[in-house]
Amino acid sequence: xxxxxxxxxxxxxxxxxxxxxxxxxxxxxxxxxxxxxxxxxxxxxxxxxxxxxxxxxxxxxxxxxxxxxxxxxxxxxxxxxxxxxxxxxxxxxxxxxxxxxxxxxxxxxxxxxxxxxxxxxxxxxxxxxxxxxxxxxxxxxxxxxxxxxxxxxxxxxxxxxxxxxxxxxxxxxxxxxxxxxxxxxxxxxxxxxxxxxxxxxxxxxxxxxxxxxxxxxxxxxxxxxxxxxxxxxxx
Length: 235
Hints:
alpha/beta, 8-stranded mixed sheet, 8 helices
């Protein structure tokens, strides 16, 4: 696991666990992780078995690998109380692509138990129903605050489109949720995996601040920031 830690604030820090996509690694998403760390969050990047695999595609639809990813995140969450650097009671679980699927399984999807440390989720390019055991009712118990980020040209593995990507937002009864759709963007969301922060990093930071009680961040997100780049919905 790789940790990107704040340099300008003192621990214990609030935690964001960020799950990489298929075939990625814990070293990816550097711009996003550094931006969040600069705003006071400890960003923990687990490494999954598909990291760096020559052909990770078979793992995408392998339930044993789904379970292994979930257990690796759970091990991170279980270990937080033993590390004085981290707040163990206010974790946001996040991920991109296959990492978003991993994150979904920690938010109550398919009636899976939610770890007591988890208080919210960020899903970048998430999966909708008909994929990896997800059905139209899979999000019935997702009630934690939720940020869903996708794009107008963010297609699924079988050609699914925007309506499919936004299902976690549309179908969950989350206490507070926000959807941001990048106009003209694709699955890589304007370089989310790269080493430079982008507007999505600012959205995720504001969401994390809002979940941690910053009312100004709540108002900012509700106003639809970057309206020239994203379409927004909040409920």
